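Hi support team,

I submitted a single chain yesterday and got back a structure, but I'm not sure I'm reading the token output correctly. Could someone confirm the output below corresponds to the sequence I sent? I've pasted both exactly as they appear in my results page.

Thanks,
R.
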Amino acid sequence: MYELDLTLRNNITTKECPLGLYHPHSQYHHIKKENIGLIEVMGLAVLPSRLKREMELLADCLTEKKPLEEHEELQKHIDWVRGFVPKYNEINKNNVMDILKEEIGQVFVKVLEDAGVYKCNEEGRKAFERFIAAL
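Hi R., thanks for writing in. Yes, this is the structure output for that exact sequence:
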């Protein structure tokens, strides 16, 4: 009859994660450096506006076989692109934006996992159960 959505936040920092332990980790900052908010927790990815221009330029480079290194704003995406391009038989004007959306989505899943106070593993589930039992 009722549903409760609980969003837990913890802003502690560590030497390895100076922006926050539950903040997007540095390997994903090329897509999302900003902290996760309630809209994202509810399932809607709020991405930085800079990505629109960067992805349009990236799409052009991928379809026209232009080197990414020639564009300063694409430098941060090079390792990511090298990681996913081999998965696709062909990248062309008809599918490039769908591919980029899929790959951004995969990064965003990792960003959400980083933000989770209780991780989706056995240890995290047990810790969450202890938390709920303490309420």
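A quick pointer for reading it: Residues 26-134 form one domain. Let us know if anything else looks off.

Best,
Support desk
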